[in-house]
UniProtKB/TrEMBL annotation:
Record key words, sorted: Transferase
Protein name stated in the entry: CaiB/BaiF CoA-transferase family protein
Pfam families: CoA_transf_3 (PF02515)
InterPro entries documented for this protein: CoA-transferase_III_domain, CoA-Trfase_fam_III, CoA-Trfase_III_dom3_sf, CoA-Trfase_III_dom_1_sf
Statement: the UniProt record of this protein carries the keyword Cell membrane: no
UniProt keyword Transferase, yes or no: yes
Amino acid sequence: MSENSEPTGEASTGLPLEGIVVVSLEQAVAAPIATRHLADLGARVIKIERVGEGDFARNYDAAVHGLASHFVWLNRGKESICIDLKAAEGVATVRRLVDEADVVLQNFAPGAAARLGLGADELRRARPELIVVNMTGYGTDGPLRERKAYDMLVQAETGLCSITGTPETATKTGIPTSDIAAGMYALTAIQAALFRRERTGAGATIDVSMFDATVEWLGHPMYLQMYQDTQVQRMGLSHASIAPYDAYPTVDGKILIGVQNDRGWRALVTEVFGRPDLAEHPKFATNILRVQHRAETDAVVAEHTRRFGTAELDKRLAAAGVPAARLNEMKDLIEHPQLEERNRWREVATEAGPVRAVLPPVTFTDVEMRMGAVPALGQHTDAVLADLGLTDDQIAGLRAAGIVQ
């Protein structure tokens, strides 16, 4: 596959992963978020989609000028090629793509890729230097390996829901945490494997599961349970081990205050509230005491915060070095001065026109991450197949047979 076959047609940009080719048999969130970051970093990502429907995340909603918000978020900078993997000729075409790739990533059901002849063992038998990443819900073995593994289900199975929400109600997180966690570990593993291959020439077979990724993020509550026999309680916006740490009323709303040490408590009551007598109060002087007297601590803090407007209190807390934040909604985030003043907004092309997008969180000082177009379904099928050496007649034959779209 030629190095000048990037969808952007741009000259070298100096991006970290420029020249790396990724073939991804992906859908939904976990795998696409990993490959989107690879694309942002400069890799050429060829996304294999189903003929007809494509990635089912394309149909979650129609919020972005008729396009699905998840898909727009997760798939910029990729090339979309539609191939029927139930057809032998379709699988053979993917194998030709794999022969030119550095990385193959798939998040099919366990064993599905191997049954298609696209398993890691078979692919790497021909090319040991290939990096193959298998993403699953619960892993490639174990009693749950065949279970459906949507994000909410994994959050529940791992116990994440048991520590999320209010005392009355367990909830999932407001974003697909298990999907994102797995995607980030896949991204890290791929970059590590590429670095190792650069030094040793060795490829890799990597397994990443949503379950394992979420379990890793639950280390703190797991240790409390294992060694203190303590189930972390659902605290809403509060914190089981810290006080004051919650949303407190103001004249016109609420503000979150999180005092993590006794120095912060003294600053809060002395510099913000003007109550130095509370600094060494026998119920409030230390965090241990404040947690033991949480209700009284919260009542004292609320008594003082409700005397201020939110904006004024926010400034006073910042000036005193007391950790605090406004309880923003999504509309507040979109208009947030921290994004605007740091020039974090860009435009990304889609088939429905340009859409706004925020720069990736990884900032290189010498080069800006590539934020390529969000592909239409099968937009790059002809170009990718032509790049493999297929003639127009051959491509037309595959299309007529329904093997590609």
